[in-house]
Amino acid sequence: MSRRFRESPESDSRASRRYHDRVARQYDNIYDDPYWDFHDRLTWEHVKPYLPRDLTTPVSDLGCGTGKWGLKLLKSGFHTTFLDNAAAMIEEVRKKLEAQGPRAKRATLVVNDIIAMNDLPDAHFGLTLAMGDPLSICSDPVSAVREMFRITRPGGLVIASADNKLAAIDHFVEKGNVDALHDFLKTGRTNWLTGDERERFELTTFTPQSLRKLFEKSGFDVLDLIGKPVIPVRANKLLLSKPDAIDTLLKLEAELQRDPTTAGRAAHLQIVARKAEEKKTD
Q1: pLDDT at 194 over 90
Q2: Of 41, 52, 197, 219, which is least packed with CB atoms within 10 Å of its CB?
């Protein structure tokens, strides 16, 4: 996999938007798979403890795709903002909201890129989810995290996932291209490869340390950072088909994630970061 430099972050944004607009109608089917079902359960297990106790707290789902995580927040009782840079994805969310009855009134739909969320107010959200690795997909992760900080209220949380740089090393080793491996390790960037050149955009990968630093430099306090999944169940999906296997694997993942060093071997990283409360002045 050779990395190609694009003309600008804006061109990457256009390529990503073109791809996600095209696949929006089939997107759920692409991830209809036992591995992703397990991955989603694992993700939600690490989101639930951070849900606000006050249901009036506004929450958001950034890079929402077809609305998987935002719909969970909406069903939990929160006023939820769904945001994606692909209008076709937002239309898929709109269709799903038709089945939500009165809950749909608590949903706000926004077409924006996470690197410039101009339609979202400052210091507003008590919880923001950015799942499905939008930090890796976007053209400028630094700007994206700064925007997350801007829209988060003091004391609010951001929970985001990203592609793990360390997990991608094996791919480059298998290709046997030392130059490509060197390039990747130096930059942490690779390409999302599709058949259409116009849909190819750069992906940014992170180590646990670099993801932590990204949030800390933007002003967040990092509360937690895990890898998911640590156990490489994707290599043998038969593990997921046995009776009670999912519950057993979830327990094993919870035990492994108590050791922060295990994040390095996981496919994805998930970070929990908090914007500090404003200091009271006398």
Answers
A1: no
A2: 197
**What 3-state class would DSSP assign to 169?**
helix
DSSP run (H or E) holding 208: helix 208-217
* pLDDT score, position 223: 97
In angstroms, the Cα distances linking 40 to 47, 57, 105, 268 are: 10, 24, 26, 12
The whole-model pTM stands at 0.91
Q: Is residue 2 part of a domain?
A: no
Return d(Cα 97, Cα 92) in angstroms, integer.
9
Residue 112 lies in a domain: yes
* Domain extent at residue 21: 9-52+59-275
Q: Are 78 and 105 in contact (CB under 8 A)?
A: no
Query: Is there a domain that residue 4 lies in?
Result: no
Confidence of residue 7 (pLDDT cuts 50, 70, 90): very low
C-alpha 246, offset from chain centre:
22
Tokens 């035990």 correspond to 255
Q: Taking 80 as the threshold, does the pLDDT of residue 94 lie above it?
A: yes
Contacting residues for 219 by C-beta, under 8 A, at least 6 apart: 149, 275, 276
CATH number of the CATH domain containing 36: 3.40.50.150
Give the model's confidence band at 202: pLDDT under 50 very low, under 70 low, under 90 confident, else very high.
confident
The per-residue b/e assignment along 119-148, b for 16 or more CB within 10 angstroms, e otherwise, is ebeeebbbbbbbbbbbbbbbbbbebbbebb
Who has greater pLDDT, 203 or 128?
128
Question: Would 66 be classed as within a structural domain?
Answer: yes
What is the distance, to the nearest Å, from the Cα of residue 72 to the centroid of all Cα atoms in its chain? 15
Structurally, how many domains does the chain consist of?
1
Residue 244: band (very low, low, confident or very high) from pLDDT cuts 50, 70, 90? confident
